[in-house]
């Protein structure tokens, strides 16, 4: 039985089915990385911090639809997860420490949600305030500190508009990857998808085609809309020189926060969660006080208030057609800002350090 919810603009969105996508080959050996997190994890918004991406496409041809795309996505995404199996993994408690977690590539899978909405894509694009409507097109299910091993860290939602257009909504935990690594994965996935389905003699319908398979009963446990609200968070991205020794992570974060407050004329919450990825791929997350004293620094800060440099508008999953609408955001948490420090991805890149400051 399909679940449904009503958007704030009065249009009905229904979930038709839910599937799990796993890597097409078992991951051996398994990969993992450590997460050092606060002891009072349940009192913070850290577990629910995620990055959302929304891509909207017009119908490419008569046979094209979100239902067809979702069926093919199950095949291509499985191939892409072979190369990045941690995205299909889960959180679990480490046996050698009281509070730390780790992400393990146990092939539990990515959740694929198929939905439809009684709204034309053109009408959606013309909405003056798309904040809540966009949030309904990306699915997320909160997970708890007690049993994190049962919750997916990555969701894909394909939504069919009444005109034949469709959207692809991505939700991924910030404990898993940062927005830049995620965008690289999405581009690689798109390349694999287009290679797999570039021939002209493809069958009319994929093997996993929901309208022919019947409605999935696995959607009964979903709580549409309860965890996917798009709170009014904004993000500013800073680029800093790679070789920085004068400030530690907390002071770098505080320096960027001060710059945000000057540029945007706003005040961040008194506390913020600080995500720091170490060179060995382990991640440390802690709650920091906004009252940190910042030393005088001569560091040159270059910042942007858009996600344009991710290049998400170039992602094509439907015969080379580019998205007609791209939106992405980090969710906000009540009374808590968020700072991510992302190490250089290229040794030759002198401006490789990125810091993302997210505030409500």
Give the helix level as a range of percent.
Answer: 10-25%
> N-to-C SSE series?
EEEEHEEEHHEEHHEHEEEEEE
CATH top level label of the largest domain: Alpha Beta
Radius of gyration: 21 Å
Proportion of β residues?
A: 25-35%
List segments where confidence is low: pLDDT < 50 over at least 5 consecutive residues: 216-226
Family: Belongs to the plant acyltransferase family.
GO molecular function, one term: acyltransferase activity, transferring groups other than amino-acyl groups
Organism: Sesamum latifolium
Pfam families: Transferase (PF02458)
Outline of the structure:
The protein has 360 residues and is of the alpha+beta class.
Can you describe this structure?
Helix 1 packs across helix 4. The chain has two domains: 3-231 and 307-330, Chloramphenicol acetyltransferase-like domain (Chloramphenicol Acetyltransferase, 2-Layer Sandwich), CATH 3.30.559; 236-306 and 346-359, no CATH class. The chain has a nine-stranded mixed beta sheet with strand order 5-6-3-12-11-15-16-10-13, with helices on one face. It has helices at 66-83, 121-125, 131-135, 179-196, 210-213, 249-264, and strands spanning 3-6, 12-21, 32-36, 50-57, 90-93, 101-104, 110-117, 154-161, 166-173, 234-240, 271-277, 283-289, 302-304, 325-330, 337-342, 353-359. It is of the alpha+beta class. Residues 216-226 have low confidence and may be disordered.
How are the secondary structure elements laid out?
Layout: E1 3-6, E2 12-21, E3 32-36, E4 50-57, H1 66-83, E5 90-93, E6 101-104, E7 110-117, H2 121-125, H3 131-135, E8 154-161, E9 166-173, H4 179-196, H5 210-213, E10 234-240, H6 249-264, E11 271-277, E12 283-289, E13 302-304, E14 325-330, E15 337-342, E16 353-359
Parallel strand pairs: 3-12, 7-8, 11-15
Antiparallel strand pairs: 1-2, 2-7, 3-6, 4-9, 4-14, 5-6, 8-9, 10-13, 10-16, 11-12, 15-16
